[in-house]
Amino acid sequence: MQHLFDTTYEVETPEAIDLSAKIAGPAPRALAYTIDLSIRLLALLLILAVLAFLGEAGWGVFFILSFAMEWFYPVLFEVLRQGQTPGKKMLGIAVVNDDLTPVTWSTSITRNLLRAIDILPFAYALGIITMACTQHFQRLGDLAAGSVVIYRKKYTTVTNLPPVKPSPPPIPLSIEDQLAITSFTQRHQEISSARQQELAAILQPLINQNKKDQHNNPVIHLHAVGNWLLGKRE
Amino acid sequence: MKQAAFEQKHQKNWSTLEQLLNTPKAKANPSFPQHYRELCNHLALAKHRRYSTQLIDYLNELVTQGHHYLYQHNYRYQLQWLNFLVFQFPSTIRRNGYFVGAALALFFVPLLVMAQACYINSELIYSIMGHADVNMMEEMYDPSNHKLGRERDSATDIYMFGYYIKNNIGIGFRTFAGGIIYGIGSIFFLVYNGIFIGATAGHLTQLGYGATFYPFIAGHGSFELMAIALSGAAGLKLGYALIRPGPYSIKSSLRFAAKDAIIIMYGVIAMLLIAAFIEAFWSSTTSLPTALKYAVGIIFWALHLIYFIFSGRKNEFK
């Protein structure tokens, strides 16, 4: 059942490793679309303001440009800017082929031509329904093109660990517990200190069992164990 | 090996790779594949040894970037467009002959029936068009109307070129996209456009305006009508893939169909651009003799037939 709720998307690469990505849902995509739409309308207004002085020929050029903006604005950005239109870039999401390779012209054109149907009957209703019904939040255009929209995050390199003297875990820990403690230690700067206290307090009884223990604050104790598990000895 | 030791040992490799990926020109570095494979190995090890999620996320992101670079499909080769024109497009049309046939029938049968009907019954046109539209259309092709039987200036030509691009290619795209609703949208647009064009032709002929109407459409007619029918064929292919996925899942069947459909659409875009160009800059001229316009129209139709039947045929697998 869990895999039905999980937004992790895994692909096996030719190097025989599992590459994973987080699928972006309807909300960030709708926001990105709204931003793109505003940019497009603004650009068209500016173009119109300039071309209005050129008479009929200006209108002809305006028709061509508005046609191109309507259908090819997303295509050009997706293919030439690593799957990101300006709106998608702001939301930190990107379009990729479903094997997590960069979108090709064909993929991008297919998914953007089929927008004409996803947008029906109003406000992308059909697209949103399709996204809700498919496991990887794909609208009709994505299904036909074989594309998915994923989050593209910047991960920092190895983080700085809390300045706590490492200490070995008081009892043998299962691998899951070890993982939980190391993650807790590494994310010490992301989680608020109140929340850290709250989380660590769950383990209070466990720590008190060990009378010889030097740390009474459960947060510091967990950091110490985490540092130890990560391999620090000093 | 503990995580800290692992990180320390390989940090240099990772930052080298990060640097390579961040400087676009240096990407062609011959050491890239080796660094990338090592990185893949590190990610697998990190996962296997249950290192922290933070490290795994970091490595995963780096591998994703490398994977993007190594497996990009956007390769270009010289004369790719020629290959498309001579081989790919016409053989895709032939490979999907059933869909093309069906689309042609869905478009041209209503067109011809409606043309005949409107030719016989002069009132029938009002059942599909409003009075204002009919009047406007009649005025456009009225041979006695001197104002329109003129040589347009070039600004108007550009205006019409832009208008035809926006309007006609938009119709082509919608006819294709409609196919994904089990083909219904494509069928609708094909029949609808067929009825409309047929009614216009029939009505104008019945009024005796044929002498202005037919020379006008002779030049671009083949490109425009064929392109609309072909975009319908591409749409029907998508719809059929949903109705009869055969041995595949619906999703894969749709994807396979979309591959051919998009090739057809590339051709359709090219054809509609040519049509818009001819329509704006050639069809509208009145200084050229009518016979020449008819001759060009017939030649274009013949070229279409020859192109779709014979081009690139030699290289096809039988």
Description:
The complex is a heterodimer of chains A (234) and B (318). Chain A has helices spanning 2-5, 26-51, 55-80, 86-91, 105-113, 115-118, 125-133, 140-145, 175-186, 193-201, 204-208, 218-229; strands spanning 8-12, 18-22, 93-97, 147-151. Chain A has 234 residues and is mainly alpha-helical. Chain A has two domains: 8-151, no CATH class; 175-229, no CATH class. In chain A, the strands form two sheets. Chain A has a two-stranded antiparallel sheet. Chain A has a two-stranded antiparallel ribbon with strand order 3-4. The longest helix of chain A is centred in the first third of the chain and has 26 residues, at 26-51. Chain A is elongated and about 80 Å long. The mean pLDDT of chain A is 84. By secondary structure, chain B is an all-alpha fold. The model of chain B is unreliable at 146-151 (pLDDT under 50). Chains A and B meet through strand 2, helix 3, helix 5, helix 6 and helix 8 of A and helix 1, helix 2, helix 3, helix 7 and helix 10 of B.
Concise account of the structure shown:
With 234 residues, chain A is mainly α.
The largest interface is: A-B, 63 and 67 residues
| Element order of chain B: H for helix, E for strand | HHHHHHHHHHH
Relative strand content of chain A: 5-15%
Order of helices and strands of chain A: HEEHHHEHHHHEHHHH
- Return the average pLDDT of chain B rounded to an integer: 86
The separation of the N and C termini of chain B measures 59 Å
Unreliable parts of chain B: 146-151
The overall strand count of chain B is: 0
| Largest sheet features of chain B | none
